[in-house]
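Hi R.,

As promised on Friday, here is the backbone we talked about, encoded as C-alpha cells. Could you run it through your design pipeline when you get a chance and send me back a sequence?
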C-alpha cells in the first residue's frame, strides 16, 4: 500500500471470481505489431491473474492526505484523459465533481457506479456502463488535476497558484494543439486495461453536458517505477528507465520534491497544500532510425549500457554514475540532478503505440508523466537543460499539458476540488 494513502479502504469490496479472458493489449493485433517492432517490449497476451503478484487485483485506498496514483506503486496500464469544460454553471460543475468523486470512490473499490449496470428501470440507461463487471479492482487509482485554463472560469482567477505556470516553448517542440492542454484531467492507472478504460468512460458519461474529452492517451508497459526493489522497466528503445526515480516509501524525498507544502502557498492558493503539479508530455519516438543505430551509439546517447543498465564505467545499474565519463550530450548526464542544481521529479511514464503515421512508420513513444512540488524548479529547468540532448535526434515532443493536482479526498464527506471551490464561496 502506498505511503501517501494511509487510510484503509472504507467500503467493503466485492470479490468476483478472477476473469479467465486473455488480454491482447490495447489495440489487439496493432499493439502486437508495435511490440514486435519495438523488440518485444510488451508481453502480447497474458491472463488477468498474472497481471501482478499475490495480492493482484486488490484495491488501493481512495481516501488519504494525498491523491493515489502519484507515489502509489506504478500499475501496468494507463488511460489518461484531458477534458474541456462546456458549462458556465458553477453549481452544475461542482455537482459534477461531487458525482465524479462518488463514482471514483466506488470504482477504485471494485464496485459499480450508482445502482450498477443492470437491474434498474428498463426504460432508463443504467448507472454503470458494465464492461468491468466481474473484474477485480486491479489496483485502480484515479487522480484529478486542474489546468491553467480552468482558472479563467467560475471566478477562480484569484485562486490560481503561482506555480501553475504555462509551459514555455522548448527546443524541438512540435506540439499538436489537439493533443495539448485542457481544463482538467483524470489519470486512470490499473493492472487491467479494461478497468482503466471503464473508469474514464464512466466519468466522461457522468460529465456529459458539463465537460467533454479534449484528448486522451492509452498507455502500456510502465517506463518508470516507484518501487525500486522491483525490476526496472524498459522503454520502447530497449533501455531501462527510471533507475533513480523517487520511491513511494521515500517520505523525505516526496516531501522535498513532490508534495506542495504550507510554505509554498499563500492564502489564495492554500487549497493546494498536500497536492502536486503534473506535467504530461506525449513524446514520439523515431523508432525506425533508432533501430538502425549501432549499439555503441545507442549506449552513448543514453549514457548507460543496454543490458545491465549500468552507467558508463560502472558495473551495476544502481551504481552512482560518474557523469564526466559520459559524453557531454548523454541523456543521463544532462537529466541528472547534479546537472540541474538538484532539480528532481517523480516520473510515472508509459509506452504507447497508436498505429502508424500514414507513411509506414510506427506512431509510438513515451507518454511522460512527471509530478513535482513546483514546475518552475522541476520540469522546466530539466527540460531546458536537455536542449542539447543527443536523444533529441530520435524523439520529438508532440503533446503537452500541465495541471495542478489537489490534495487527497480525506473522507466520505470530501470531494475532488472542495478546498478550491470552497475557498471563494460558501459551497460545501
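Update: got your reply. Pasting your designed sequence below so it's all in one thread:
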Amino acid at each position: 500500500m502506498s505511503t501517501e494513502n494511509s487510510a484503509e479502504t472504507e467500503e467493503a469490496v466485492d470479490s468476483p471470481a478472477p476473469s479467465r479472458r486473455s488480454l491482447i493489449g490495447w489495440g489487439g493485433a496493432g499493439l502486437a505489431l508495435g511490440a514486435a517492432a519495438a523488440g518485444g517490449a510488451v508481453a502480447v497476451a497474458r491472463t488477468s491473474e498474472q497481471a501482478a503478484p499475490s495480492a493482484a487485483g486488490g484495491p488501493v485506498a481512495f481516501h488519504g492526505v494525498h491523491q493515489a496514483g502519484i507515489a502509489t506503486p506504478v500499475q501496468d496500464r494507463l488511460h489518461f484523459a484531458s477534458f474541456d469544460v462546456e458549462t458556465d454553471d458553477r453549481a452544475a460543475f461542482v455537482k459534477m465533481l461531487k458525482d465524479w468523486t462518488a463514482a471514483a470512490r466506488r470504482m477504485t473499490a471494485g464496485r459499480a457506479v450508482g445502482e450498477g449496470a443492470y437491474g434498474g428501470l428498463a426504460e432508463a440507461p443504467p448507472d454503470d456502463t458494465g464492461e468491468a463487471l466481474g473484474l477485480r479492482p486491479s489496483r485502480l487509482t484515479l487522480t484529478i488535476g486542474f489546468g491553467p485554463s480552468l482558472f479563467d472560469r467560475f471566478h477562480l482567477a484569484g485562486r490560481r497558484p503561482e506555480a501553475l505556470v504555462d509551459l514555455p516553448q522548448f527546443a524541438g517542440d512540435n506540439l499538436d494543439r489537439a493533443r495539448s492542454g485542457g481544463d482538467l484531467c483524470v489519470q486512470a492507472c490499473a493492472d487491467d486495461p479494461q478497468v482503466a478504460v471503464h473508469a474514464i468512460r464512466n466519468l466522461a458519461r457522468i460529465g456529459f453536458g458539463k465537460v467533454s474529452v479534449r484528448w486522451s492517451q492509452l498507455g502500456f508497459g510502465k517506463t518508470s517505477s516507484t518501487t525500486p526493489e522491483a525490476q526496472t522497466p524498459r522503454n520502447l528503445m530497449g533501455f531501462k528507465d527510471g533507475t533513480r526515480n523517487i520511491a513511494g516509501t521515500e517520505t523525505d524525498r516526496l516531501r522535498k520534491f513532490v508534495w506542495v507544502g504550507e510554505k509554498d502557498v499563500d492564502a489564495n492558493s492554500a487549497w493546494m497544500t498536500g497536492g502536486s503539479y503534473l506535467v504530461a508530455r506525449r513524446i514520439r519516438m523515431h523508432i525506425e532510425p533508432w533501430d538502425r543505430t549501432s549499439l555503441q551509439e545507442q549506449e552513448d546517447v543514453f549514457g548507460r549500457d543496454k543490458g545491465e543498465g549500468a552507467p558508463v564505467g560502472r558495473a551495476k545499474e544502481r551504481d552512482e554514475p560518474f557523469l564526466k565519463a559520459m559524453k557531454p550530450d548523454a541523456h543521463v548526464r544532462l537529466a541528472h540532478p547534479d546537472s540541474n542544481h538538484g532539480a528532481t521529479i517523480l516520473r510515472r511514464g508509459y509506452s504507447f503505440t497508436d498505429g502508424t503515421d500514414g507513411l509506414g512508420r510506427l506512431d509510438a513513444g513515451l507518454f511522460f508523466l512527471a509530478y513535482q512540488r513546483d514546475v518552475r524548479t522541476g520540469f522546466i529547468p530539466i527540460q531546458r537543460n536537455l536542449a542539447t540532448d543527443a536523444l533529441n535526434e530520435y524523439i520529438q515532443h508532440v503533446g503537452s499539458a500541465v495541471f495542478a493536482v489537489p490534495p487527497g479526498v480525506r473522507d466520505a464527506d470530501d470531494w475532488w476540488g472542495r478546498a478550491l471551490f470552497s475557498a471563494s464561496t460558501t459551497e460545501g
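One thing I noticed while checking it: Residues 180 and 400 are 5 Å apart (CA to CA).

Thanks again,
M.
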